[in-house]
Write a structure and sequence with these properties.
The chain is mainly beta. Strands 6, 7, 8, 9, 10, 11, 12, 13, 14, 18 and 19 form an 11-stranded mixed β-sheet that branches. A 6-stranded mixed β-sheet has the order 42-41-44-45-39-46, with no helix packed on it. The N and C termini lie far apart (about 85 Å). About 50% of the residues are buried. Mean pLDDT is about 95; it is low at about 1-35. The protein binds dinuclear copper ion. Dinuclear copper ion binds near residues 625 and 633.
């Protein structure tokens, strides 16, 4: 019975894809002519020299980075590398940032970034930081919104795929990390057939409110399901975090069938304030672990990586009132909490309806000890007793919900490829618009917070077919911007994105813009290898290790003639940009460098490791167009044979 229902859904899914993409040009023209008014164009037009009203902080998905766009223009401003090396900025290539990509598995130059999440104060995005999760080798990262640099990465132990992450609590007390793939906890060499016996889930709470001190506050060991998404309570439900789960069947193979058998899976409701009490009372197990904490210091301009060795673990069986399961139909994907904190929306991705749970009813049921059953010490609440209502959407495959500032909710439907607008409280559908095509997440600025700005909605689509000029088999990914200020949603703009726009957050530009840094102070540069003036430029040899303390200012390096380097040397160029004006970066590269170039901001020091293998004269030059004499910003290095007696000399000018 269940299986045949699934087959029907899969059939409809296939048909939806075919109908939405197959005859693209005709449906497209109809759509475009409906849009073709100057009114729509003026709504996204930002005059040259003017600024956008919002930042959109969009995940790069499998590119492992985070990108900043303007709304409503859809213009791309900056790509911030997080979990992946980036040659444009030397992130993960220069010596300073390599430690950012260290893990218990060694140096990992890639990850699959999924969900950006802005820091909040009192439930409102505050513009301090953006967090994002690494899905593959479980990690969370902090991006500082004054420098737009990745400044901290924490590996998550005892997890196998960090998907339900990094969703924040109301004051950024914690960001969370729930394991998508259950694995042995702790890891162990066991048969995969022993899934039900040995595989567990981990729900991790990461302390996130102090830069440099990100740490696993505690982990909760839970049944071996797949934990998919999360959101924390707000207002009255502050103190709780909700995680969706699927695969309560605990299948370990062909999950598309075997993990879709149960009529209902669960939303895990975690009382994290109760968890804090248990931790404070010492009612936890300290377990051995091995996970990396990497921190980039904006004054030393360097990252350090530290391995952490233990983690505090809570077992629900030993911790009454720590967590509960709310039954939720049909393999729920997104779980979203409305701005008042009263409703918890579970989107069963194999369902047509959206299930809304009531926080008040949940508390009442808990107080009445009204439980269906208990699993591994976790009470399961009765579905009918916690249900607030359900939205008969008329769509198929609900995934994610965000909110506006007028009491409306907007849910994406992957299979029927649309956004459905409905009223929180009455559950009535009031509008729907198609997406091109197969929408996953959506974003409304502030739309998962207590105070949505509303105004715009960005749909992040999985399929782009026929929306742009073709570029071979691989097409750009696509986001679509809608105006949601009126009764009816209005499509304004398609814009391409870098990588996969997996999820996004949006924030009013005014909250972030005034704090954006223009330079790094040279006086405050605490890099151990900085040369803060040309007088400090020098070269030091220690065996075959050579340290070049170099400076750069428009339009020369100091020194720019170097002799005495030998083939086989390890040469560290520590290059300091002496400029103290906004927008005056310089670059550095030397022939034969086999890692990357450097891109150095005013007042910053970066290091390139160069290992010349062949004798000869090597030019080096500035890679960033910096002045009318940028082409003159260059120098020479002489590389002599190993064992040569050429003296180490360096100079600038005659
Ligand atoms: Cu400095 Cu170009």
């Amino acid at each position: 019975m269940k299986k045949s229902a699934l087959n029907i859904l899969l059939f409809v899914f296939g048909a939806a894809i075919i109908s939405s993409c197959g005859n693209g040009s005709s449906s497209n023209n109809a759509n475009n002519s409906a849009l073709g008014s100057s009114d729509v164009a003026s709504k996204v037009y930002v005059e040259p020299g003017e600024h956008d009203k919002f930042y959109a902080v969009i995940s790069g998905g499998f590119s492992g980075q985070l990108s900043f766009y303007g709304l409503p223009s859809g213009r791309l401003f900056r790509v911030v590398p997080v979990f992946s090396q980036d040659a444009e900025k030397a992130y993960g290539y220069n010596e300073e940032t390599k430690p950012m990509l260290n893990t218990s598995h060694g140096f990992i130059p890639w990850d699959d970034a999924h969900h950006p999440e802005l820091s909040q104060t009192d439930g409102v995005p505050d513009g301090r930081w953006a967090f994002i999760n690494g899905n593959n080798t479980p990690r969370v990262a902090r991006v500082d919104l004054t420098t737009f640099e990745t400044t901290e990465i924490l590996e998550i132990p005892n997890s196998g795929g960090n998907h339900s992450s990094p969703f924040t609590t109301e004051n950024t007390e914690y960001i969370v990390a729930g394991t998508r793939f259950s694995v042995p906890f702790p890891q162990a060499d066991v048969s995969i057939d022993s899934y039900k016996e040995n595989f567990k889930g981990a729900l991790t709470f990461v302390k996130a409110d102090a830069p440099g001190e990100m740490d696993v506050a505690f982990q909760i060991i839970v049944p071996g399901y797949d934990y998919d998404l999360a959101h924390s309570g707000k207002g009255k439900s502050h103190g709780w975090t909700f995680f969706t789960s699927y695969n309560t069947e605990q299948a370990k193979t062909l999950k598309e069938v075997y993990a879709s058998q149960n009529d209902k899976d669960f939303i895990a409701a975690v009382n994290w304030k109760k968890a804090e009490e248990y931790i404070a009372a010492g009612n936890y197990t300290e377990m051995d672990a091995n996970y990396a904490h990497n921190y980039y210091d904006e004054y030393t301009h360097m990252a350090t990586s530290t391995m952490k060795k233990t983690v505090k673990v809570l077992n629900p069986a030993d911790c009454p009132e720590l967590m509960y399961y709310l039954p939720c139909p049909k393999s729920p994907h997104g779980v979203d909490v409305d701005p008042t904190g009263s409703y918890i929306i579970g989107a069963g991705k194999l369902s047509a309806d959206i299930t809304v749970h009531s926080f008040d009813k949940m508390i009442e049921a808990i107080n009445n000890q009204s439980f269906e059953t208990e699993i591994d010490g976790i009470p399961v609440l009765k579905f009918d007793e916690v249900l607030a209502g359900s939205v008969s959407s008329g769509g198929l495959g609900p995934l994610h919900t965000e909110f506006d500032d007028k009491g409306n909710a907007y849910t994406t439907f992957f299979i029927s490829s649309e956004v459905v607008k409905w009223k929180v409280g009455t559950w009535e559908v009031v509008d729907r618009v198609p997406c091109y095509y197969s929408v996953g997440h959506l974003m409304i600025p502030g739309g998962d917070s207590k105070k949505p700005w509303g105004k715009y909605l960005v749909a992040m689509n999985k399929i782009t077919k026929d929306r742009y000029l073709p570029t071979g088999p691989e097409l750009t990914h696509s986001a679509q911007l809608y105006d949601i200020s009126g009764e009816k949603m209005q499509l304004l703009l398609d814009f391409p994105t870098v990588g996969e726009p997996h999820y996004a957050q949006g924030i009013a530009a005014d909250v972030v813009k005034p704090n954006s840094k223009k330079i790094y102070s040279l006086a405050e540069n605490a890099h151990p290898h900085a040369a803060k003036s040309e007088d400090e430029a020098r070269i030091e040899r220690n065996g075959n290790e050579v340290h070049v303390y170099m400076t750069m200012i428009r339009s020369h390096f100091a020194p720019d003639n170097i002799e005495g380097i030998k083939a086989g040397d390890k040469v560290y160029f520590h290059v300091t940009n002496l400029e103290q004006d906004w927008d005056t970066p310089h670059g550095f590269s030397v022939m034969g460098a086999n890692n990357s170039e450097l891109l150095i901001m005013p007042g910053q020091t970066e290091t390139l490791l160069w290992e010349p293998k062949q004798v000869g004269i090597y030019p080096f030059y500035c890679t960033d167009f910096c002045s009318a004499l940028h082409q003159e910003m260059q120098g020479y290095i002489r590389v002599s044979p190993a064992g040569s007696s050429v003296e180490m000399t360096w100079s600038l000018g005659e």
